[in-house]
Amino acid sequence: MAKGRILVVDDEIYIVHILDFSLGMEGYEVITALDGEQALEKARSEKPDLIVLDIMMPKLDGYETCKLLKAEEGTKHIPVILLSAKGRNVDQKIGFEVGADDYITKPFSPRKLVERINAILGQNSSHASPPADPRLVGRTPRPVALRARPSPCRLRACPSRRSPCRSRCVAPSPIASPSRSPNASAWASRCRRPSAAARAAGSWSS
Questions:
Q1: Most distant pair of Cα atoms in the chain: their distance
Q2: Is there a contact between 169 and 191 (Cβ–Cβ < 8 Å)?
Q3: Which terminus of the chain faces fewer neighbouring Cβ atoms within 10 Å, N or C?
Q4: Beta bridge partners of residue 80, listed in sequence order
Q5: 3-class secondary structure for 17-37?
Q6: What residues bear 4-aspartylphosphate in this entry (predicted)?
Q7: Domain residue ranges in the chain
Q8: Contact residues for 115 (Cβ-Cβ < 8 A; gap 6+)
Q9: What is the pLDDT along the chain (206 residues), one digit of tens a residue?
Q10: What pTM was computed for the model?
Q11: Residue 91 CB burial class (10 angstroms; 0-12, 13-18, ≥19)
């Protein structure tokens, strides 16, 4: 079910398409018109919930269209957002004097316009953040203790055991490598294996 019906009035067709897409994604039903005369006809017949109205249009400009809409009994309650490249204070003042509820200057953000429409109609945006879980409100998150993981031994084989080294070995320097140092005792001295008592206790120190 649509959130509401929006009448978009602009003589620039690409803006009509952009707003048609943006408002449709938000859940609104969009009605379009390309000039002021069409806007009056569709406002009377379609009864939209809100009108987005450009100012500079052929036949009947936005100021006059808005003034006529607010003068008629059947359309005076419909909110009107004026959309125009005229950004001077005097232009905005005229817009509010003829009955506009809001005034947005071009270039504009479609997302910002949707937010203004939602605010006027009292609707929630479909892109709003989801409500917080009431079970978590007021609770302080517990700190998570991260344990340092020992770096793996870089000795592929311990010469003293002739098997993959499972003790905490210190990586050899580039000079002290099996290919350059045939002395196995010098190589094994870099491997700090735990004693039998330390292994039984489950811990050892270097």
A1: 104
A2: yes
A3: N
A4: 51
A5: HHHHHHHHHHCCEEEEECCHH
A6: 54
A7: 5-121, 153-197
A8: 125
A9: 678 999 999 999 999 999 999 999 999 999 999 999 999 999 999 999 999 999 999 889 999 999 999 999 999 999 999 998 888 889 899 999 999 999 999 888 899 999 999 999 986 555 444 444 555 555 555 655 545 555 555 545 555 445 555 544 444 444 444 444 445 444 444 545 555 655 565 544 44
A10: 0.59
A11: middle
R_g of the chain, CA atoms, integer Å: 37
Q: Which CATH number fits domain 5-121: 3.40.190.150, 3.40.50.2300, 3.50.30.10, 3.60.10.10?
A: 3.40.50.2300
Give the neighbor-by-neighbor strand order of the sheet with 102-105.
29-33, 5-9, 50-54, 80-84, 102-105
Whole-angstrom distance, CA of residue 187 vs CA of residue 176: 7
Give the amino acid at 137: V
Cβ atoms of residues 190 and 176 within 8 Å = yes
